[in-house]
Amino acid sequence: MRNPPASRRLLAAGVVAVGLAAAGCGSPSAPAADGAPTPTPVQDRGPITLASSKDTTGTVQAQLDRWNTDHPAEKVTLVELPESADQQRQLFIQNAQTKSDAYTVLNMDVVWTAEFAANRWIDELPADKVPTGKMIPAVVETATYFNKLYAVPYNTNGGLLFYRKDLLDAAHVQPPTTWAEMKDACAKIKALPQGKDLSCYAGQFDKYEGLTVNFAEAVDSAGGSIVDAEGKPTVDTDEARKGLAFLADSFKDGTIAKSAISFKEEEGRRDFQAGKLIFHRQWPYQWELANKSDGSSKVAGKFGVAPLPGLTGPGKSSLGGLNLAVSAFAKHKATALDFISFFASEDNARKNLEASSAAPPYADLYTDSELVKKYPYLPVLRDSINTAAPRPRVVAYGDFTAVIQENAYAAISGTKPVDQALTDMQAGLLKVVSK
Amino acid sequence: MTHTLPRPVPGLSRNKRRAREGRLALLFVSPSLIALLLVVGYPILAALRMSFEVSSTRIDPATGFKVTSTRFGLANYAVVDGRFLNALWNTTTFTVVSVAIEVVIGVAMALIMSQELRGRGLIRASILVPWAIPTAVSALLWRWIFAPDGVANAVLSADVVWTGNAFSSWVAVVVADTWKTAPFIGLLVLAGLQAIPREVYEAARVDGSKPFTTFWRITVPMVRPVLAVAVLFRILDVLRMFDLPYVLVGPRKDSVETLSMLAYDEMSNLRFGPASAYAAILFVYVVAVAFAFVRLFGADVTRRGAS
Question: Considering the entire predicted model, what is its pTM?
Answer without folding.
Answer: 0.82
